Amino acid sequence: MKTGSCTIIIKSGGEMASGIAVRLYRAGFRNILMLETPRPLAVRRAVAFCEAVYDGEQQVEGITARRAETPGEIRELWNGGMLAVAVDPDWKLLPLLRPEMTIDAVLAKRNIGTAMSEAPLVVALGPGFTAGVDAHYVIETNRGHNLGRVYAEGGAQPNTGIPGDIGGYTTERVLRAPVDGIVAACRDIGSPIRAGETVCTVNGVPVAAAIDGIVRGCIRPGATARAGLKLGDIDPRGVVANCWTVSEKARALGGSVLEVLCAHLNR
């Protein structure tokens, strides 16, 4: 099967899913559809194709995705060299498009409905899945020595609840909602920030940065947040350009997906 004719469906259009889509696209795979909820809550919005749900179109590293509603519209985008994003939280498009591969990149830390019967090749990211039971392969998402490791048996490491270390910081770099409510007054992505300064508010309650750095990501203003929801990400390295490119983690996971797919097609 030629790469251009291989249909791939990714559940989610968030940061990690988008990094995977970028690597697949650059490897020649063009028929890529990303399935999303009606109101995605991406933090790293600048590198998440799910923003096409709101704006109709989103570019990540020069690759364009557009929102589509029907299989016909999806195929039209593919023919034009673009990725497709559809609001389909129940994954009803799966049997209509008959993909060669599905990728569960929801990162829900549990299986919310993925099955090996969905496609000839089913891959799931992170904990909550067992290779050979829920998916053909499971990919490790925990930063560290095994990041990107492909499991043909068993599953990924359990969720630690601790964000990955960036610049020597873990929990300190992540912003979370202090209360339930509407997110507002967000600082622009790429803005420099000092510890103690407000990045955004939830129902008027300020959410302050705990460290100096750059606002690498912040949830979309107007979003409804629950207490504890991840709202933003402060990058202590201070490199503004990093805000607009796929992270090393997302790129690594994309390479793992590509490894599995190429092995599958070359059998």
UniProtKB/TrEMBL annotation:
NCBIfam families: matur_yqeB (TIGR03309). InterPro entries: Se-dep_Mo_hydrolase_YqeB. This is Selenium-dependent molybdenum hydroxylase system protein, YqeB family.
